[in-house]
Every structure is written in structure tokens, then in C-alpha cells.
Amino acid sequence: MSKKSYKDLIDSLEKENYKFNFFYAETIGNHLPEDSDWNYKDVPHSKFVHEDLSSIQVCTLEDTSGSINILKLPFFGLSVPLATINYEQSRFNQIYFSSFGPYILIVNTISKKIDSEKTKVKTSYAIGSKGLFKYFHKIIERMILKNYNKLMLEDVPMRQRRGELRKSGHKFYSDNKTSFKFTEEINRANVYLDEGVGSEINIKKSSLLSSKKGDRIGQSSGILSFFITEEDNIKKLWPTTCSHEGAYLDNNCIKGEKIFCPWHNKITKPLLIISENEKNKFNILPCVDYLTTDEKETIKIKFRNDPKYYDKNYKQ
Ligand code: FES
Ligand SMILES: [Fe+2]
């Protein structure tokens, strides 16, 4: 399969007498190139994370994604459909193209590590058209940059969150599965803990019984960190980190008896129900990602910590 580079694509259109305006935007964040690259490939988040973008996914392949993006135009407030193809040209280098009337838009995002903690993501844009239409390129550029700023306000926190988790020993299976298609499997647990960090925790029953609404239990952050909710003398213990790709979970994500993750809407139930007035004070709820057991003085919570478990042909 051949895949044109950003430059080759522009060269081909210039031969067809298209004239281009070029500009770029950059972000620098505390994360790895893997995190921004994953974020650009992540098909399902646009529906839940982006306010001014809704997307109808047309085809999702390993290295290519086709969608109809309905984008709210800045300044005008009008929503327009843009048929968009996005493909991975090489590792950490993705290309998008779309057209609207006489205009063609080509976008290239490249993620590069600039030191041990930071990554720069450069997004280059080329707007092309023929004849007098080129006089509107500057207006389109302003709209695109305004739109970019809004999208980055929503995307960069996702990348930074993963950067934070990496610092406390967390890893992501999606570093190895760098595909658009893989991002659609939202019921997986792709977060895992580095060997050496340990994947289980013992929590004293006494500290659970004396806990209050909003208390953090277990580790301070990450997959072995939990929080308490309380209503009518019944407390519940919930994870603070979504096992799918690491979103931060809190009280605001709870609807009814479940947590709905803000990144891709994976549903999680509480791990434990604690009721002070009953004989059975600790009611453990089954969960595919965590094994919770009653150990007399403590409640032990063990994270599955095996992202391969969710693969189709899993064999232990
Ligand atoms: S991070 Fe994907 S559903 Fe939570
Ligand atoms: Fe996004």
C-alpha cells in the first residue's frame, strides 16, 4: 500500500494548479509522543470529549480512519459536514485531508519528544484552492486556528493525564497497538502497572468504616486509588482511574449506580458496598478488572494487570 507524505500530497495538488497557504500550531505537554499519537487515533473520544465536533465514523482500519465530521464553525456558529480521511504516514506522523466547496485542507500532526518528560506536537496546515478563492484563505486560517485552540483545550488534558499516570508506574497497552481500530474496543483494560510497582492493595476495614464521602482510599492516584461516596448510611468504593485508557473518575461521573467514563463512556460499578448497620458490612461486587476479597481485617483489591487478557485469542 502506498501512502503519500504531506509534501507529496501538496506537490500533486500544485501540479493541478492549486495554490496553498501554509501555517502551523504547536502544543508542548508533559506526556510521551505515544499519548498524543493515541489521542489523534482515538476514534470514540470525539463524541464524548469535544463540544463542537460530532463524528460519524465511516470506516476504521488499522492505519486509516474515514469519518464525516460535523464541525461547528467558529465566528459563524454554523455546523458543516466535512468528509475526512486520516492515516498514519509513519510512526507519530499522521495526515488528514478534507475538502469543502472549492477548498482542500491538508493537515499533518507530528509528535516529537523534546526531553525526558515533554513532547511537542506540531500540526501543519495547508489550505488550497484555485483562482480567486485563494483570497479567502486567511479567513479560513483564522477559523481553523480558533477551532484548534478549542479542540486542544479538550484533548491536551487527556494526554497530560496519561503522562501523570506514567510517572507513577502506569503503562498503556495501546503503546504497542497503535491502530485506529484498536481504540474502538472500549471494554478493555489497557492500563497496567509496571512489574515492581505491585498490583494489589490491602485496605483496613476500620479505615473503610470510618471513611467519609469524598475520601481517597488506597494509593494517592492511579489504578489502586479509590474514592468513597455515601448516601443514606451506605458507602460505596469506586476506582479513581478508568482501566480502559486512564481517565480520571470522580463523583461527577456517577449516574445512578454506575460510573460513566468521560472519555469513552465505559461503564463501571462500585467495587464494594459498605453498610454500617447490617451484618454483612462489606458487600463485594464482581468486576472483570479487579478481584476484591474479604481478608478478615482487611479488604484486598487486586488489579488484573494483564491487558492481553482482553485479546480475542487469550491463552494464559
Ligand atoms: S478511558 Fe476510555 S472509557 Fe474510560
Ligand atoms: Fe480529540
Explain what the structure shows.
By secondary structure, this protein is an alpha+beta fold. It has 2 domains: 6-168, Alpha-D-Glucose-1,6-Bisphosphate, Chain A, domain 4 (2-Layer Sandwich); 191-310, Rieske Iron-sulfur Protein (3-layer Sandwich). It has helices at residues 6-15, 33-41, 45-49, 137-167, 205-209, and strands at 19-29, 53-60, 64-72, 79-90, 93-100, 103-113, 119-129, 170-172, 191-193, 200-204, 216-218, 225-231, 234-239, 254-255, 258-260, 267-268, 272-275, 282-284, 290-295, 298-303. A 7-stranded antiparallel beta sheet has the order 1-7-6-5-4-3-2, with helices on both faces. The site of FE2/S2 (inorganic) cluster has 10 residues, from loops.
What's the arrangement of secondary structure elements?
Blueprint lengths: L5 H10 L3 E11 L3 H9 L3 H5 L3 E8 L3 E9 L6 E12 L2 E8 L2 E11 L5 E11 L7 H31 L2 E3 L18 E3 L6 E5 H5 L6 E3 L6 E7 L2 E6 L14 E2 L2 E3 L6 E2 L3 E4 L6 E3 L5 E6 L2 E6 L13
Antiparallel strand pairs: 1-7, 2-3, 3-4, 4-5, 5-6, 6-7, 8-9, 10-20, 11-12, 12-13, 13-17, 14-15, 15-16, 17-18, 19-20
The structure holds FE2/S2 (inorganic) cluster and fe (ii) ion.
Order of helices and strands: HEHHEEEEEEHEEEHEEEEEEEEEE
Shape: elongated
Major sheet: 7 strands, antiparallel
CATH fold assignment of the largest domain: Alpha-D-Glucose-1,6-Bisphosphate, Chain A, domain 4
Indicate the low-confidence ranges by residue numbers: none
Attached small molecules: FE2/S2 (inorganic) cluster, fe (ii) ion
Number of domains: 2
Task: Provide the structure class.
Answer: alpha+beta
Strand content: 35-45%
Query: Gap between N and C termini, in Å?
Result: 35 Å
CATH evolutionary superfamily of the largest domain: START domain
**CATH C-level label of the largest domain:** Alpha Beta
Overall pLDDT level: 95
What is the annotated CATH architecture of the largest domain? 2-Layer Sandwich
Strand order of the largest sheet: 1-7-6-5-4-3-2
Number of strands: 20
Summarize the amount of helix as a percent range.
Answer: 10-25%
Q: What is the CA-based Rg, rounded?
A: 23 Å
Number of helices: 5
